[in-house]
Structure formats: structure tokens, C-alpha cells
Specification:
The structure holds 2 protein chains of 2 kinds.
Chain A lengths: L15 H17 L2 H27 L4 E2 L2 E2 L2 H26 L1 H8 L3 H5 L5 H31 L7 H32 L3 H18 L9 H5 L12 H8 L6 H25 L7
Antiparallel strand pairs in A: 1-2
Helix pairs in contact in A: 1-6, 2-3, 2-6, 3-6, 3-7, 3-8, 6-7, 6-11, 7-8, 7-11
Chain B lengths: L4 H27 L23 E5 L1 H6 L1 H9 L5 H10 L3 H4 E8 L18 E7 L3 H10 L3 E5 L2 E6 L10 E7 L2 E5 L1 H11 L9 H8 L6 E6 H8 L3 H6 L3 E10 L2 E10 L2 H22 L3 H9 L1 E3 L4 E9 H11 L5
Antiparallel strand pairs in B: 1-2, 1-8, 2-3, 3-7, 4-5, 5-6, 6-7, 8-9, 9-10, 10-12, 11-12
Helix pairs in contact in B: 3-13, 11-12, 12-13
The chains are: A mainly alpha, B alpha+beta.
């Protein structure tokens, strides 16, 4: 008798979650030690240096941040730094530089073929890299904010104990902002061929402009929902405060969180969908 | 996870910074730990000030004495130094060279008194001076002036009941820490020694502490409850009723090559603040008119800046050293 043929054991393809983690594992180190991270370190070192200089001036000479000959408390200075440096500049710029490059870099380096030939869902490449972006930026941004907090808040009579709850909110808000901007620009990177220019124009051109225009245009920005999570009060009578009063149509926290969640889920889904279906033609 | 060693180190370092920061912040938030290493501008000796102090004042004596503006003031207006000499004769402390910083306070108006409603707490003021003191010499000098030494809660209290004190409680001095002298009436010094072992102090008074923290990190400052000070001053009813309803007042100044300062008053409501602002604006306008004929004062008057919002009224000023030179020159008799 001829024994019945035994089918050779087949290796099951890894799940989306397992593949995502594998790509994350591979990408985190690459991302952390890339030239982009050197730029990121410079970008995040700036606020820390400013904070250290303020602190040093406060200790050595009793100088502080003054407005109309009034000493501004350290917590207000910290709030301004969070709003003007982190929320309005660093977070969108990081989102643009990292988010647009998640897939675009692999296409440009012609290495995307190697990733797509692996037995795993194509979307895992995007999701794994997005996760690596998130961990990489959070590990750099949050300690930077922490250092700025402890350097700046005690100056001018600010209190660490009283300001600490708003620091916790800020850290959460920055994490949400990094996720939202990263997701938006990851989508831009999967659809467009030269996504960096478009991304910069969106983050530094469209968003600030749309926030100043009365009406519904601001609802087409990430910054509009992000500012609903900012807890800091601007110093009264300042040009910044006056400017903010003009655009003070801030959504509620619940609206902001819902809108940001929708933005993150929809843009990531669209990006993953594009990666799954798009034919990437590598230029020779 | 197959992270490389340097990636792992980076992740751990980053997480450590985050966790240390959150831990320190939580400790500060829940236990109201002062975080002395992080805090700037807040004198540590505040822990000896009672929670209900009516006035707290601070001066960096070393910076004031070494400042250029003080030299100019001395040249312009030579002042008699009798009080300073008398203090040195009685205590052996040279204010100019021995003292670095001074923190003073006034007790609440309700303290002290007599009769059935007498408050058991000591009244009056006390000065906490940090500097370099020759304790043996000071004790000997004070004994020579009739003081006696007693041990109070393990601290040597040098008290002179015959010395003239503002409340008639005599005069006492105690070194409560190395380089920290408490000077005041005997009951007040005793109260400070009691506070060394714990109990509430002014750092628990959030209202007063927020006033202190709101001050410029100045060379000298003072914060007080206006109503308490009014009660301490025991003003006649007619005058007291004319005083605007100010709750807190503060003065902060920086003394160096010039003298810059801010006077701030917190009123009971916004209407009172607006009234007070109008009154001050009137005085500033009057001063500007008067200064027209006195060029040496013009720069000072021009520097006056009225500000504040809501219930706060502020008046900032700046006096350059040249102003005192001009005053000195104007005060000197013309040479023939």
C-alpha cells in the first residue's frame, strides 16, 4: 500500500499586530540614530537652553521674564513656551519631517521592495514605522518638556506644586499632538511624491493662517483641536493675549479629543489602505 | 525586542528623566514639598515666620550695602549713624559688615493686648538676620548692658528686660541656627524658638505666600495685609474711613547701579481698584507738574508707570544714580 501523502507543514503568515511590532523593532533604532534625530535634538535642545539661560539669569542676577515692567511668574513663561515653541512649532515640524518620511524614504532609497516581499501585510510596514516614530519623538520631546518645566517654573515666584497638574495635561496633549500630526503627514507621505514641501506648507502656512480666519476654516486644522487641550492662560494685556482673544474660538476638551481621535484613525486608515493598494514605481 | 545596546540605553535614560520628573512633581504636589533646590528667590527663613504675620519684609543687606546707589546716596545725603552705632554698641553686630540678609515680620494686630479679650500670642515684630556673628563677643556686650542669659528649649536666650522695646517687653537675641540671629522682644524670640520644633508657619499661608511669590526676586521687598497694619497703627476713625479698601500691599525693589521698584496694592473689588488707580494717576500728574521746575526729579517722575488689572494696582518707578548726585549737588551750599 502506498501511504497517503503527508502535506508538508506550512508556516502561517504573521498577524498584522506581530508584523507591526517586528517593523517597529527594526525601525526604532534606525530612526533614533538617523540624521533626522540630530536635527530633532537641536530643535528640542533650543527650549532647554533658553530655559537654562532664564534660570541662570534668575539665580545670578535676579532677572526674570518681564512684561510691562512686571515680573511674569515661571508657570506663565512655561505656558508660553509650551504654546509657542512646542504646540505651534516643534510638534508640527516633527510630524512633517518624520511622518512624511515613513514610506517616502523607503521609496526614495528603493528599499521598499525588500519590505513588501516579506510575508506580512503591507500596512504593517506603515503602522510599525508610525509606532517607531511615536516612541522616538515621545522619548525626545517629553524629557525636554520636563527639563524646561523644572528650569523655568520656579523663576519669578512660580510654584512647581501648583503647576504640576498642568504639566501632566501638557505631556498628554503633546503626545496626542505628535500622534495626530504624525498620522496626517504619514498619510500625506503615502499619497504624494514630494510630501515634505506640501507638509511644511500645511504646518507652517495653512494652519496658522486658517486659525486667524474667522469662520469654519480652522476646523480643517489639527492645531484648532489641539488648542482646546492647552490649559495655560496667556499673560493679560500682552500682544499674544490680544491675538489669542481674536481667535479664541476654542473647542471643548471633549470635542477636541473626539476630533483628534477621528483625525488619527481616519488618516492612519487611509495611509494603510494606500500602502496596501498602491503600486510604488521605483525610479531608476 | 532586539534593540541595540545604545538604543536601549537611550530609552532607559529618557524614561528615567521622565519618571524622575513626574516623581518630583508628584511629591511637590501631594506633600507640598518646597523643592528647595528648584526654588529660587524664596528665603528659607520663612519657616520661622508665624502663619498669621501681618507684614513680612526681606532685604539682601549685603547687596544693598555694596550697591553703587547706596554709595551715591551716602555722598549726596550724609546721614547720622547714631541708630546703627547704638545697635552695634548694644549687640556687637555691625550691620554693614556682619549681616548678609534680613527677614523681618510683624505679628497680627489681634495678638497681645490686655484685659478679658487678650490674645495669648506675642505682639510686635522680629528680625531674623543671617550673617557672621561673634556669639561670645555679642553675649558679653549684652551682659555688660544689663542682659541676662537663660536657656529656652535648648537655645541660649540673651534677654535685656530693661532695654527699650516697642511693646515694653524688653529686648532679646538668640542664635537659633549657626549664622542666624533672631532679634526682637523677649516673647517674640521665645515664639521663634518654639517654632523651630515644628508647628505652622507662614509657608502654610497660601494667600500670603502667593503674594510673596508674585514679587520680583528683588534686593528688598515687603508684603503686608493692609487692614492688619491699619489696625496695628490704630488710626483715628476719620482717617481710617478715608483709606481705600486695600487688602494686600507689596513693595519690591532692585538696588544696584540704579533703584527700580514696584508698589502693588490689591483691593477688595474692581471698582475700588479703578478708584485707587484714578487717585494715583492724579498724584502722578501732580508730581509731573511739580517736577517741571526741578530737573533732578524729572527722570524719576517720568519713570512712574501705573499699571495693574482687575483688583490690582501697580506703580513702578526707576531712579538712576545720577538723580542722587543731582540732589547732593543741589543740597550743597554754593562755594565762593
Amino acid at each position: 500500500m502506498i501511504p497517503p501523502s503527508v502535506a508538508p507543514p506550512t508556516r502561517r503568515a504573521p498577524t498584522l499586530a506581530a508584523s507591526t511590532l517586528r517593523v517597529f523593532d527594526l525601525s526604532l533604532g534606525q530612526m533614533l540614530w538617523s540624521r533626522r534625530s540630530a536635527f530633532l535634538a537641536v530643535l528640542l535642545g533650543g527650549p532647554v537652553l533658553v530655559a537654562a539661560a532664564l534660570r541662570l539669569a534668575s539665580i545670578s542676577y535676579g532677572w526674570g521674564f518681564r512684561f510691562r515692567s512686571q515680573q511674569v511668574a515661571g508657570d506663565a513663561v512655561f505656558g508660553m513656551m509650551i504654546w509657542l515653541l512646542y504646540v505651534r512649532f516643534i510638534i508640527p515640524v516633527l510630524g512633517v519631517f518624520y511622518g512624511t518620511s515613513l514610506v517616502a524614504d523607503e521609496v526614495e532609497d528603493k528599499t521598499i521592495t525588500y519590505l513588501f516581499t516579506r510575508p506580512m501585510p503591507r500596512s504593517a510596514v506603515l503602522l510599525g514605522k508610525f509606532l517607531a516614530y511615536l516612541v522616538c519623538t515621545l522619548l525626545l520631546v517629553l524629557p525636554s518638556v520636563m527639563l524646561v518645566f523644572f528650569l523655568v517654573v520656579p523663576t519669578g515666584g512660580g510654584s512647581i506644586a501648583e503647576t504640576f497638574p498642568s504639566l501632566v495635561v501638557d505631556l498628554g496633549m503633546l503626545a496626542v499632538g505628535l500622534t495626530a500630526y504624525g498620522a496626517v503627514f504619514a498619510m500625506v507621505g503615502t499619497y504624494l511624491k514630494r510630501p515634505l514641501v506640501i507638509g511644511l506648507a500645511f504646518a507652517l502656512g495653512w494652519e496658522p493662517a486658517a486659525l486667524l480666519i474667522p469662520g469654519y476654516l480652522k476646523q480643517l486644522t489639527v492645531a484648532h483641536y489641539l488648542q482646546g487641550l492647552v490649559t495655560h492662560e496667556m499673560p493679560q494685556d500682552s500682544p499674544i493675549a490680544i491675538l489669542l482673544q481674536v481667535v479664541r474660538e476654542v473647542p471643548s476638551v471633549a470635542t477636541s479629543l473626539t476630533a483628534l481621535s477621528v483625525i488619527i484613525v481616519v488618516t492612519l486608515w487611509l495611509a494603510a489602505w494606500a500602502v496596501e493598494r498602491r503600486e510604488y514605481v521605483l525610479e531608476q | 525586542m532586539s534593540l541595540t545596546a545604545r538604543t536601549r540605553h537611550f530609552v532607559v535614560a529618557s524614561l528615567l528623566v521622565l519618571l524622575a520628573g513626574i516623581g518630583a512633581g508628584l511629591a511637590a504636589y501631594y506633600m507640598r514639598v518646597p523643592l528647595g533646590v528648584f526654588q529660587s528667590g524664596e528665603p528659607q527663613d520663612l519657616r520661622y515666620v508665624p502663619e498669621d504675620a501681618a507684614l513680612v519684609a526681606y532685604a539682601n543687606v549685603h547687596d544693598v550695602m555694596a550697591s553703587e546707589i547706596r554709595q551715591r546716596i551716602r555722598r549726596a545725603v550724609p546721614m547720622p549713624e547714631n541708630g546703627q552705632r547704638q545697635f552695634q554698641n548694644e549687640t556687637g553686630i555691625n550691620i554693614e559688615t556682619d549681616i548678609d540678609r534680613v527677614l523681618a515680620y510683624l505679628g497680627p494686630a489681634s495678638a497681645g493686648g490686655s484685659g478679658a479679650n487678650a490674645d495669648a500670642r506675642p505682639s510686635g515684630g522680629l528680625v531674623l538676620a543671617r550673617g557672621r556673628f561673634d556669639e561670645v563677643k555679642i553675649e558679653t556686650l549684652m551682659r555688660d548692658h544689663g542682659a541676662s542669659v537663660e536657656e529656652y528649649n535648648g537655645i541660649r536666650l540673651i534677654a535685656n528686660p530693661a532695654a527699650a522695646g516697642p511693646m515694653g517687653d524688653g529686648f532679646a537675641l538668640a542664635f537659633i541656627e549657626p549664622g542666624l540671629a533672631a532679634v526682637g522682644s523677649t516673647p517674640m524670640v521665645r515664639a521663634v524658638i518654639d517654632r523651630m520644633t515644628g508647628g505652622s508657619n507662614v509657608t502654610a499661608n497660601e494667600e500670603l505666600m502667593s503674594q510673596i511669590r508674585a514679587l520680583d526676586d528683588g534686593t528688598a521687598w515687603a508684603v503686608g495685609r493692609f487692614d492688619e497694619l491699619g489696625a496695628n497703627a490704630r488710626l483715628p476713625q476719620q482717617i481710617a474711613s478715608q483709606i481705600p479698601p486695600i487688602t494686600w500691599f507689596s513693595l519690591s525693589s532692585r538696588i544696584g547701579t540704579d533703584l527700580r521698584g514696584t508698589v502693588r496694592a490689591d483691593t477688595r473689588d474692581e471698582a475700588a481698584a479703578a478708584n485707587l488707580r484714578d487717585v494715583v494717576r492724579g498724584f502722578v500728574a501732580l508730581a509731573k507738574l511739580q517736577a517741571g521746575s526741578r530737573p533732578e526729579f524729572q527722570a524719576v517722575v517720568q519713570s512712574l508707570e501705573l499699571g495693574g488689572s482687575d483688583k490690582t494696582v501697580t506703580l513702578s518707578f526707576s531712579v538712576s544714580g545720577e538723580v542722587f548726585d543731582a540732589i547732593g549737588a543741589a543740597a550743597r551750599p554754593p562755594q565762593r
